[in-house]
Amino acid sequence: TDYDNLQKASIDAFTDPTAPSLVPQIGGATINAGKAELAGIELEGLIELFPGASLALNYGFTDAKYTEFNLVTAGAAPSVDCSGEEIPLGDVAELSCVPYQQTPRHNYSVSARYMVPIDPRAGDLEASLTYAWYDRQYTSTNTIPSEEPGSWLDSQGLLNGSIRWGNIFGTALDLQLSGSNLMNDTYRISNSNQWTFTYQRSSIYSEPRIISLQIGFRWE
After folding, report:
1. Which residues make beta-bridge pairs with 153?
2. What predicted TM-score, i.e. pTM, was given to this entire model?
3. Taking a C-beta distance cutoff of 8 angstroms, is the pair 81, 95 a contact?
4. Among 76, 70, 67, 98, CA closest to 11
């Protein structure tokens, strides 16, 4: 994928020369700031272990980078660009070294499914278990990592599973027991990325382990 005139979320500042105070008014802006290239590969495989049991494997690799990223510095304070120098307000910051946003380099998943052999008159019983892992990812849109604490989200693996009993005793009734985040891991899923503006940071954390029971009925 080759991007030109790539849109990036940024901030903009306006100073009203007629206002009593020359403090700039600051707000959000979407700016055509640069160019980027993305390349990668995805692999999928399915193994039939024995009748009724299968193993699905998925892997993805993504190499994403900015080839050009020039942004006028706006806001309340100067910013630091890829040169390591502080860029004054109103000047152009060169930011092509910023990691590409929300794009893990590696990710994979392994899923096992098993059709439990039971009396067909009792219905269908299927058990599944999935482990999915993704690499660390960068969250800030236009700040170099050294200037944005918490901008990297750590790599994470999640284990989910379910047991489904369908067509219960020949009826249109289904029952499914599901569990997400079975290892009950706690991890960050976002970062505020406001350090250069407010000198504060905050994060949202993951949901805990969740066990759910779903009952369904199919009208035919």
Report:
1. 137
2. 0.85
3. yes
4. 76
